Amino acid sequence: MGSTGEHDRKRRHFSSVSPTSAAKKHWIVPCSEDRKLDATVLQFQNQKLLQQLEVQKVEYTALQNKFCQLKDKGCDFSDTLSVVDSSWKELVEKLEALAANSRASANGRFNDKNSPVSSETSIQLWEATNNLAMEVKNLRSSLSNLHSKQRSSLYDLQRYRDEHAKNKAEVKCLSEELEGTFVELEESNRNLIALKAQRNSAHGAVFPSPTLGSKHVAEDKARDEQKELQDMEGTLKEFLDLSSNRLVELKSLYEDRIKILKKLAVLQVEKDSFLWREREVNLKVELADIPRRASLVAESRIDEMEKELQKRVDEKTQLDKRLEDALRESGRREIIAEFKEMVLSFPKDMECIQSQLNHFKGSPSEIHSMRAEVQYLSNILERKKTELGVLSGRSAEQTSEIQKLQGVVHEVVGLYCSQNLTPTVRHWQNDPRDLEDVMELRDLEYKAWSGVQCLKSSLDEHSLELRVKAANEAEAISQQRLAAAEAEIADLRQKLEVSKRDICRSSEVLKSKHEEGEAYLSEIETIGQAYEDMQTQNRQLLQQVTERDDYNIKLVMETTKNRQLQETLRMEVLTMHQEMQQASESMNFYNLKVSLLEDQLRIWSEQIGKLLDDEAQASVSLESAKKRLMDAHKESQHLGQSLDERESKLETSRIDVSDLQIEMESERFDQKRIDDDIEILTRKVTYLQVRREGSSVIEKLQQEIKEYKGILKCSVCHEREKQ
Questions:
Q1: How far apart are CA 549 and CA 327, in angstroms?
Q2: What is the dihedral of CA 277, 282, 288, 293, to 10 degrees?
Q3: Which residue spans adopt a coiled-coil conformation according to this UniProt entry (predicted)?
Q4: What is the residue-averaged pLDDT of the chain?
Q5: For residue range 503-535, what is the model confidence (pLDDT) as tens digits?
Q6: Looking at beta carbons, which pairs linking 588-596 to residues 24 or more positions away fall under 8 Å?
C-alpha cells in the first residue's frame, strides 16, 4: 500500500509539473529571439548613425580644404591685380608727363620768341595730344574693367566665406542632433542591458528542479514574467518607433539639404548674372558721364565766347562814340538836330491822323448797330400782331364750344323726362280702372314737369351767367393784352422815330467826317510831298557828309582793323592757353602723381626747347609710348583671358564639386545597401545562434525527460514502467 501511495503521489506530482514546463519551454524561445532581434536592430541603427557622422566629418574637411584653396587663389589674384594696377598707373603718369612736357615746350617757345609756330608743327602737336588723350581714356577704361573684375573676385571670396560659415552652422546643428541621438542610444543600450539581465533572470527561473515549488507559485511567476515581458516589448516597440521616426527625419533633412543646395546653385547663377548686368549698367553710366563733362566744357567755352562778344560790343560802342565826336561840328549839329526833330515829330503826327481815321471808320459801325435795333423792334411788332390774331381765334372757338354744351344739356334733359314718364303712362292706359289714381299721377306729372321747367330755366340762367362771366373775363384779358400791345407798339414807334433821327444825325456826321477825311488826306499828301522833299535834302546833306568823312572813316577803319587783328591774335593765344590749361587740369584731376616727375619734365623741356629737331625724338618717344601702350593693351587682354580662364576653371570646379557630391550620394546609397545586406546577414546569424541555443536547451530537456523516464521504469528489468 505504501508503494502504491508513493507511486500515486509521484504520478500526480509529475503530471502537475510537466504541462507548465512544456508551456514555458514553447513560449520563452520566441521571446528571446524577438529581444535579440530588437537589440541587433538598435545596434545596426547605431552603426548607421556613426557612419553618417563620419561622412559629415569628411564633407566638412573637404569643404574646408576647398575654402582654403579658393582663399589662396584669391590672394594670388589680388596680388597680380595690384601689380597690374601699379604698372598701369606708372604708364599713365609717364604719358601725362610726356604730354605736359610737349605742351610746356610749345608754350615756352611761343612766349619766348613772340612768333607764331608754324601751322604744320602746331597741327602735329595737336594730333599727338589728341592721340595721347585717347590712349589715356583707353587706359582708364581698361583700369576700370580691372577694378570691376577685382571687385567681382572679392565678392566671390566673400560669398565663399558666407557659404563656409553656413556649412559650419549646419555642421553644428547636425552635431547637436547626433549628440542627442547618442544620448538616446545610450539610454536604449541601458534598456537593452536591463532587458538582457531580466532575460537571464527569467532563463534562470524557467528550469527549476522538479522537487521544488508548487503549481500555484509557478503559475503566478509565469504570469508575472509574461507581464514584464509584455511591458518590455512595449517599451522596445516605442524605442523602435522613435528610432524609425528619427531616421525618417534625418532622411527628410538630408533631402531638404540637397534641395537647398540646388536652390543655392540656381540663386548663385542668378546672382552672377545680376552682377554682370550691374557692371554693364555702371559702365554705361560712366560712358554717359563723358558727354556730360564735354557739355560742361562746352558751356564754359560758350560763357567765355559770350564774354568776348560783350567785350566786342563794348568796343563797338566806344568806336561809335568816337565817330560821333569826330562828326560833331557847328553846322552839322544844327542840321542833324532839325532832321532828328522832324523825324521824331513825323511818327507822332501820323499816329494822330491814324487815330482820327479810325474814329471816322467807327461811326458807320454805329449806324449799322442802330439799323439792327430798328429791325429787331419791327420784328417784335410783327410778333405781337400775330399773338393778337391767335387770341381772337381762341375766343371765337371758346364761344362756339359754349353753344355746343348748351345744346347737349337741352337734349339730355328731354331724354331724361321722356324715359321717366312714358312707362307709367303706358301702364295706366292699358289698365284704366283707377281713374283717380291716374288723375293723381297726372297732377304729379304736371308738378314734375313744372319742376323740370324750373330746373331748365335755372340751368339756362346758370349757363348764361357762366357764359357772361367767361366772356367778360376773356374780354378783360384781351383788352389788357391789347392795351399792353398798343403800349409796346407806341414804345416801338417812339424808338423807331428816335432811331430814324439818330440815323439822320449819323448820316450828317458821316458826311462831315468824309469831308474832314478828304481834307486830312489832302493834308497827308502835302505832308508826304514835304517829307519827300526833306528826304531829298537830307540825302544831299548826307552825301556831302559822307564825302567829307570818307577819309576819316578810312583812317578809323584801318585803325580798327589793326586793333582787331591784334585782339584776334591775343584771343587765339588766350584760347590756346585756356585749352592747354583745361587739358592739364583734366590730366591732373585724373592723376595725382605728376608732381613726382617734375625734374624729368624740366630736363625734357630744356631738351625740347633747345632744338626743333628734337621733335622727331619726341615723336619717336611717342611711338615707343604707343608701343608700350599696345604692349599694355596686350597684357590687359592677356590678363582678361587669364581671368576668363580662371572663371571657367571656377565653373568647372563647381561642376566637379557637384559631380563629386553626386558620386558621394551614390556611394552613400551603395553603403546603405551594403549595410542593409550586412544587417540581414547579422539577423540570420543571430537567428542561427538562437536556434543553436534552443537546440542545446532541447537536448538538456531531452536528457531530463530520459532521467524522468528512467525513474518511471522498473529498476529490475529496465523495460516495464512502474505501476
A1: 8
A2: -170
A3: 215-242, 302-329, 468-544
A4: 67
A5: 788 778 777 777 877 777 777 777 767 767 777
A6: 590/92, 590/136, 590/140, 591/89, 591/92, 591/93, 591/96, 593/89, 593/93, 594/93, 594/96, 594/97, 594/100, 596/93
Among all chains, which residue has been given the C-alpha cell 516597440?
Answer: 237
Cα–Cα nearest to 35, from 227, 193, 219, 183: 193
Contacts of 251 (CB under 8 A, 6+ apart): none
pLDDT digits (tens, 9 = 90+) for 675-688: 777 777 777 777 77
Whole-angstrom distance, CA of residue 662 vs CA of residue 620: 62
Q: What is the rounded radius of gyration, in angstroms, for the C-alpha atoms of the chain?
A: 68
DSSP at 654: H
Q: Which of 170-174, 303-307, 398-402, 481-485 has the lowest mean pLDDT?
A: 398-402
Nearest 5°: the CA angle 606, 611, 615 is 90
pLDDT band at 24 (very low <50, low <70, confident <90, very high): very low
Contact indicator for 98, 64 with CB cutoff of 8 Å: no
User: For the chain, how many residues are written?
Assistant: 723
The model's pTM is 0.21
Q: Is 713 helix (H, G, I), strand (E, B) or coil?
A: strand
What is the C-alpha to C-alpha distance for residues 624 and 291, in angstroms, rounded to an integer? 30
DSSP 55-113: HHHHHHHHHHHHHHHHHHHHHHHHHHHHHHHHHHHHHHHHHHHHHHHHHHHHHHHHHHH
Instruction: Report how far residue 333's alpha carbon sits from residue 437's, in angstroms, rounded to the nearest whole number.
Output: 147
CB 304, CB 578: distance < 8 Å: yes
